[in-house]
Every structure is written in structure tokens, then in C-alpha cells.
Amino acid sequence: MELTCPQCQGVMAERTLGHVTTHRCDGCGGVFLARADLGGLVEAENDWHAHQSANTAALPRISSSMPPPGPVERSRAYVETLFKG
Ligand SMILES: [Zn+2]
């Protein structure tokens, strides 16, 4: 089902995040989320955080020949990905 954005009348593209289907506006980035999907999204958020901490890599040994670390691009929250791309 295609939704029209209530804010800018843009087309809201369907996106699936975990088990939850949302709609995101291509124009203004607004997100439509059904009430029932909010619980699923919170669950997905919690799963995501558990996964993140489980996969934390050990720090490498630091030596003077190492290049400086680049900027770390990491989402603070799983739901943040809803508003990207
Ligand atoms: Zn919009």
C-alpha cells in the first residue's frame, strides 16, 4: 500500500526494519509507524543493542607506527536507521 506524506504530499516508501514495516517519505524524511509496530520496533532496538555489545572487538595493541583511527560511523540507536538513506 502506498502512502502519501501528510506534510509534503511526497510518496512514502515502504521500509522493513526487523519484523516491522514502516513508511518513509522521500521528500521530507518523515516516518509513518503504526501503533502496533511500536512494540516490535522497541524489541528490535533491544536486540540490536544486545548484538552490538556482543560483537565489540578487542582493542588492538597501540604502537607509534599505527595510523590514527578514522571517524567511527556508528548509529546510536537502531531506529536511527529509519531516518537514513
Ligand atoms: Zn514528506
Provide an overview of this structure.
The protein is an alpha+beta fold and 85 residues long. The protein has a domain at 1-48. 24% of the residues lie in helices and 20% in strands. The chain contains one helix and four strands; from the N terminus they run ββββα. It has one helix at residues 35-54, and strands at residues 3-4, 11-17, 20-25, 31-32. Strands 1-2-3-4 form a four-stranded antiparallel beta sheet. The longest helix is centred in the middle third of the chain and has 20 residues, at 35-54. It is elongated. The chain binds zinc ion. Zinc ion binds next to loops. Residues 5, 7-8, 10, 25, 27-28, 30 line the site of zinc ion.
Strand order of the largest sheet: 1-2-3-4
What's the total count of β strands?
4
Rg from C-alpha positions?
A: 18 Å
The distinct ligands, each listed once, are: zinc ion
What level of helicity do the residues show? 10-25%
The SSE string, one letter per element, is EEEEH
Q: Oligomeric state of the chains?
A: single chain
Entry summary:
By secondary structure, this protein is α+β, with helices and mostly antiparallel strands.
Task: Give keywords.
single chain; 85 residues; four-stranded antiparallel β-sheet; 1 helix; 4 strands
